[in-house]
Amino acid sequence: MAAATQKSCLQKLEEMLDVDVDDMDADYIRSMPIKPHDQTSNQAFVDVALAQESNKDLVFQVATEMKGSDWLAVYTRIAVLMCKKNLDLISGRVLLQTSPSKAYDTAATLAHARLYDAEFTRAGVPRDRFCIKIPSTGPGLNAAKVLQGEGISTLGTALFSVVQAVACSQAGCLSISPYFNEIYAHDLSKRDQVWPKTTDPVTQHPMAPRLVHILETYRRLYKETGKMQPLVKNASFISVEEAMAAAEMGCQSATLSREILTKLAETPYDANTQPGEGRPKPPHAYNAPEPLPARLQPLLKHDPLTEGWDGSSPSTDVDYLADGGAALQAAIEADPATQKRVRDALEFFVDAEERSRKRIETVMAAVA
């Protein structure tokens, strides 16, 4: 742990953006040296929590009281109740993700999000304390637009491109979560194949230019329209350097695994060893932004994830949600990097969801 007279990287990061925890374990969150803002999760985190001995009684209780219900209804109530336990440990919202197996089904995504909303209401959790994560597909973001109109906050997730970010703006999402690394960077057996390990992620990581493009696009849209743009909650980090880079690039928040949070807390902050430095949190995410720092300006001129990029930015005048999100889907399919990363993320979460289905159906059979 850093000496008391010297800030840790975690303390410094919290000065520059909102630190969120990407974990559902109450004991861990309680042990954190700072109080996180939001608690994020996904199907993989829920599945880990379902398997924990500490949640065994909860799973059995809900399965018993919901006899005759389908497994997803049982899963949803359990996930909500597990999140509710953490509300006093955070200052912001808990986040749960709609079924990834229905990422291309607007009606099914709407139904699952509304079920989450109903379960949060049943549990006494107000809408300003939770947010529903929606995969950033055409059908998914059409569901997000409806949900926002109903007063249910959404976050566009599995996001890897400027076009997806623009579509999230058109849907009115509260936030987005661009993944800094693709999902399989978190699989130790595949990490070396997909993780671009860097010492200066801002200038060396292939996702950094897209992230800066997204933030600049939102600043421009806010200036032109006066409409609040989604907050950028950067996700999917492997190193301390990447987490610190999120602040330098201007993200409003970063959701971090316990591994990264622990390393940040144990690492003394030394400005002299940082390749760049972020700025304190601004009073408003997009109003009256400071000029883009000189170190970030070159990132607007290239996109390492697009072979032969011509320097043009996606149009913000196209309605990416029309016709079920046809224009968004076409843009994703025309972008091999995004197409692969979205596919892999959904595959990863569907696998976790399937494990959870089997766990819950086993318990449901036992109490039938």
From TrEMBL:
Pfam families: TAL_FSA. Keywords: Schiff base. Residues 269-288 are annotated as: Disordered. One of its GO terms (biological process) is pentose-phosphate shunt, non-oxidative branch. It comes from the Eukaryota. SUPFAM superfamilies: Aldolase. GO terms for molecular function: transaldolase activity. InterPro entries: Aldolase_TIM, TAL/FSA. This is Transaldolase. It comes from Pyricularia oryzae (strain 70-15 / ATCC MYA-4617 / FGSC 8958).
